[in-house]
Design a protein that fits this description.
Elements (H helix, E strand, L loop, with lengths): L3 H7 L2 E6 L4 H13 L5 E4 L7 H7 L3 H5 L3 E2 L2 H4 L5 E5 L10 E2 L1 H13 L4 E5 L8 H4 L4 E3 L12 H17 L16 H17 L9 H14 L3 H23 L1
Parallel strand pairs: 1-2, 1-6, 2-3, 4-6, 4-7, 5-7
Length: 253
């Protein structure tokens, strides 16, 4: 990646490690992304960091470790992101579009070229991403390893994805779909809308005593696919606020 435009695209991508148990895996991940031309590593509630083992396994990628922010939870780490792709080794209860690493890389590069902040998220070494974490993602990427021996460690998974993104960048610009006038709302803004949506559905007794989990997950997928911008979210908030007001008036009659 020698062109300034490619460097700026790389700077819009962060690799997020969630609840990493072994500090050596953090170092290995730092080395993996640095060899592919990336520098943004973000850590969510790591078990032990900073740590000598992380520095040793980074093999010289000390700048990546030194500049890695530490967040309390995934929401904080991706708050300003407009595209979030989570990695998973197995199918989940959460309905989720599943893509391979090459498709993920193409989407990441296209989004970064549009000026979006992008996160590629990796979960705990043993348990992966929890459902509450994966549901924040726009898509899930699965590495098509041998089903009889699918054992990739964390740093290896990071290396595979970093390589695919680098190859997508080196392939040059690809035709992009027509861009919206405004960038999609950030992850934090979308989560605030989901909280408002859940509150409104409760207010109007939409679920009628049934569990809201399935409905809310399906609505989450719908809005994440649509990727509304800030102005569209304001309209949606306005609709929800008026719905709540009308529900209150109906109860007062």
């Amino acid at each position: 990646m020698t062109e300034a435009t490619d460097l700026s695209i790389a700077d819009r991508l962060r690799f997020v490690l969630v609840r990493t148990s072994h500090p050596g895996n953090i170092g290995g991940a730092a080395r993996a992304i640095r060899t592919m031309g990336f520098r943004r590593l973000s850590l969510v509630a790591p078990h032990a960091f900073p740590h000598a083992e992380a520095s040793a396994l980074a093999a010289g990628a000390d700048d990546v470790l030194a500049n890695a922010p530490i967040s309390r939870d995934l929401g904080e780490a991706i708050a300003d992101c407009q595209l979030v792709i989570g990695t998973t080794a197995r199918r989940r209860d959460v309905p989720m579009e599943e893509i391979d690493p090459r498709e993920a890389a193409a989407r990441i590069v296209a989004a970064a070229r549009e000026g979006r902040e992008v996160a590629l998220v990796f979960g705990h070494e043993r348990t992966g991403l929890e459902n509450d974490e994966i549901k924040r993602c726009h898509a899930a990427v699965l590495i098509p390893s041998d089903p009889e021996f699918p054992s990739l460690n964390l740093a290896q998974a990071v290396q595979v994805l970093a390589y695919e993104v680098r190859m997508a960048l080196l392939a040059g610009a690809s035709p992009l779909p027509a861009q919206k006038a405004d960038l999609p709302a950030s992850s934090a803004e979308v989560e605030t809308f989901f909280e408002h949506l859940a509150k409104t559905l409760d207010e109007i007794e939409f679920h009628k005593g049934r569990s809201p989990t399935t409905v809310l997950l399906r609505l989450r997928r719908l809005y994440l696919r649509a990727q509304p911008d800030e102005r569209e979210l304001r309209i949606l908030h306005g609709i929800l606020t008026d719905t709540e007001r009308m529900a209150r008036l109906a109860r007062e009659k």
